[in-house]
Amino acid sequence: MYRPKSTVEQWRIFQAVVDQGGYAQAAEVLNKSQSSLNHAVAKLQQGLGVPLLEVRGRKAYLTPEGEVFLRRSRKLTQDIKELESLADILASGWEPVLRLVVEASLPRQPFYQALADFSKRSRGCRIHLLEAQPAGCKAVVAKQAADMVFASRAFSGVTSLALTTTVYVPVCAPSHPLATLDEVGTHELEAELELVLAEGNEPEAGWEGTTQPWIINHLHDTLSLLRRGVGFAWLPHEVVAPLIEADSLTRLPVASQILRKRFTHLILPRTTPLGPAASLLLTLIRHHYGLPDDNRADA
Questions:
Q1: What is the reported pLDDT for 222?
Q2: Where in the numbering of this chain does the HTH lysR-type domain appear (predicted)?
Q3: What is the maximal distance between C-alpha atoms in the chain?
């Protein structure tokens, strides 16, 4: 079994001697006797078998080996400080991890901005971010298997917050036959291959439309197939707008009455109150979605 040849306190003393320029100065700063500091550094060097300091007159100077060990030891003491600080954070109730689930087809730029802000204030809290289809979100909510779920529907019996409304538009490749039409109606769409973001064997209820859907589980796969001229798809305008501008996709000219919309709901599946990390993230989400800055939501 491995036994360390040094202690954190020895490294802390070694750093102080270097930073203060000598044993006498370091002893005054650390409120220790000079002899105890001499003993600690001597024992450290003896245990390592490497000279770290050499004294010239009243000043201590780093050896070449000492310069290497000084850099590495500063990381060690900083890691120890952060580790002990993390213990204080967790003892205060700060969550060590937040589990977040986002429905696949929902745009999420404001959510990403909230996470970017949260990362600067996370205090060691880790994020587990997963993507799921509507049925998967429903299962997560039922099992209370996440701290937050972003879904296109609210669920009874759990807290939810309406964040935004997303317009879904039909798009295809510029080379697709639909792209040549001046106007596209329900009849034309029903006769074409549609790429439907879903899981399982059937489209989501209320979104049926074509007689020959392909069920695609990931947005990336849907976009890749569309750009190759395969079918058409209803996708969030925010997602496809840059591709339309770049002429990678074409928005089909449909009548306004057949446009599709989805709401983005933030679901809090757990019955227990939010912890401080989740509360902070919720505040940031509200801010970036342009909602009032409070933590109340609808049950």
A1: 93
A2: 7-63
A3: 94
Q: Which of 116, 149, 155, 107 is nearest to 132 (CA)?
A: 149
CA-derived radius of gyration, the chain: 30
User: Domains (ranges, CATH) in the chain?
Assistant: 8-91 (1.10.10.10), 95-299 (3.40.190.290)
Q: Which of 197, 200, 246, 185 is nearest to 225 (CA)?
A: 197
- Tens of pLDDT, residue by residue over 236-265, are 888 899 999 999 999 999 876 677 888 899
Among the listed ranges 50-64, 146-160, 180-194, 202-216, which one has the minimum average pLDDT value? 202-216
Q: What angle in degrees, to the nearest 10, is found between the helix axes of 219-227 and 237-245?
A: 30
pLDDT category at 299 given cuts 50, 70, 90 is very low
Reported as a pLDDT band with limits 50, 70 and 90, residue 193 is: very high
